[in-house]
Amino acid sequence: MMLKMSTGEKYNTLAWHHFKTVIPAEWEVTAYAVEARIGRIEFSTRRGLQAVVSWEPCRSDPDLDRTMRGFFYKLAIEDAAIESRSSGRFLLGYCKERNLAQGITCMAESFILIRWIFENETARENAVQDRIMQSMEPNRGALIEYALFGLHLRIPEGFELEDAVTQPANVLLGFERPDRARLTFRRWGLPEYVLEGLSLDEYLEKFMKAQGGRVSYVSKDSFLGHDCARAEYAQRGQYQMDRFMGRPWPGGVARLWIDEKEKRLYCCQMIAPPGVELPKMEDLFAAAGQGW
Asked: What is the pTM of this model?
């Protein structure tokens, strides 16, 4: 999803634990947390750190003004003048002396405090702050969105984010449910280099075997408007002794495709123990049927 302001500033969707909103397209993630209970994400540009969003448990009705000012006081800014205003569901405070802005809100639906801290030029950009604050929505329900690192997913409730690898041109997000159903998403850059001259179906079969999968069938297919390879496979579970002594789980499905516009290679794998139902792969992507 790409939004555009009247100023010409482009925005991308951001969705993670507890919330979804938009951020300037030029922002890059320089640090992040997988933990849902408490964590943060940092965003930077070539000009340095621009913003940090954090989440932590809170009581049902916190004093936002006191909490906001307490943050500044911890930074020894007690005597500085703090200008405050409302923006969407947030209370936003700005300290001119330190050129630091902070927006906070309590997501009452989940008793989570969301805090945005804006630094450098972003601390003075009210339009950017307001776009983020006023776009903020709870990220709850039957489908939880995850939009970061070039992926935009809709994960069924019950799956938890277990693995994240975010190297340059090599992204992996892995989700698991208590019944051990597992979803794995990958995004690679430089498709020609990754494929090493192999076709999509040839590479997918080779890749799945390297992952310990027993591939039973590979075919050409289409997915999200792209030509793709589809594989059916079996694999041992990854939980405790399953990986060593358990019987292979049948029913695994994987798809591999190239987004020619983005010049990125994508792979989605799904597998679960026998008798455990998996979601439809098409339903896992926010832009299903429309590309990425």
From this structure: 0.88
